[in-house]
Specification:
Elements (H helix, E strand, L loop, with lengths): L25 E4 L12 E4 L5 E6 L5 E2 L11 E12 L12 E17 L5 E18 L6 E16 L9 E10 L15 E13 L4 E2 L3 E11 L12 E10 L9 E4 L6
Length: 268
């Protein structure tokens, strides 16, 4: 991997032996009709951690359903999904293994895209928000998590115009790549098991007039790394920070109630 101007990029920071897990621990979907969490969202890292792979086996570009008697005029594709890792999935946290990464580029791929002349695939979107939830309080003795600090930053928000299917039709495999002009780095990882990392994905496509694809899109995010040495100020990472985002009151001797609340919602 070549060094970029804006960072000191390093390779081999997270080796296969250093990383406990390359596959997400859990996935969730906000659009189960197009990318169901049960097999329709697959998130994993390349063995050398150079690429974050996302696969959506059922996702397809489809003609939007006509309404009120009007014929369809465009096609869309959308998937909102989340994949969870924990900080220790990215190495032990020893000083020589501490690093952070950013997304340098994106590649969209599907095996069979069909566009007539004038359909015009005018939008491809790839967005990732990283949410870091850190346990800040546990019950005495047994250590059940009862408090969480939350931080969130957008790692990439890229929208491009491939302009395919404008002057001539397209049928068959489709691949399009774009660079991320504004890489944002993750926090410095130090191997903590009490820090959950949720990658929220927003994958979207749109055409002017129509067009379809077979089920199955892959979106690969190329990564760049820099070494880092964690310090307490790193826990101030995040464009949005919510201390005590989740707080629970655990039951002690002679207590008869158990309460749980979500920060800002006033729920108990």
């Amino acid at each position: 991997m070549k060094a970029a101007v804006i960072v000191t990029v390093v390779t081999g920071v997270f080796t296969a032996s250093a990383v406990a897990r390359h596959v997400s621990r859990a996935v969730r979907s906000g659009t189960p009709g197009t990318c169901n969490a049960a097999g329709g969202v697959i998130v994993n890292f390349e063995d050398d951690m150079s690429v974050l792979h996302t696969k959506f086996p059922d996702l397809d570009l489809y003609v939007d359903t006509p309404s009120h008697g009007f014929p369809p005029s465009y096609s869309i594709m959308i998937c909102l999904a989340s994949a969870e890792f924990i900080e220790s999935d990215f190495g032990s946290g020893y000083i020589e293994e501490q690093a952070r990464f950013a997304v340098s580029g994106v590649t969209w791929t599907t095996k069979n895209l069909t566009l007539e002349k004038g359909d015009n695939l005018n939008t491809l979107r790839a967005k990732i928000d990283l949410i870091k939830d850190e346990t800040n309080r546990t019950t005495p003795g047994i250590g059940i998590p009862v408090g969480t600090n939350r931080a969130k930053s957008n790692l990439i928000s890229l929208e491009v115009n491939p302009a395919v299917g404008v002057d001539e039709p397209h049928k068959g495999e489709f691949t399009f790549s774009a660079k991320n002009p504004n890489p944002v780095f993750t926090p410095c990882f130090r191997g903590r098991g009490n820090v959950a990392l949720n990658f929220d994905f927003n994958i979207y496509a749109h055409t002017d007039e129509g067009g379809t694809s077979s089920g199955g899109w892959d979106v690969d995010f190329k990564l760049i790394y820099e070494k880092c040495h964690w310090q307490s100020s790193d826990d101030n990472w995040g464009q949005i920070k919510i201390p005590d985002y989740q707080v629970c009151n655990y039951k002690e001797t002679n207590q008869t109630t158990l309460q749980r609340g979500l920060h800002g919602l006033g729920l108990h």
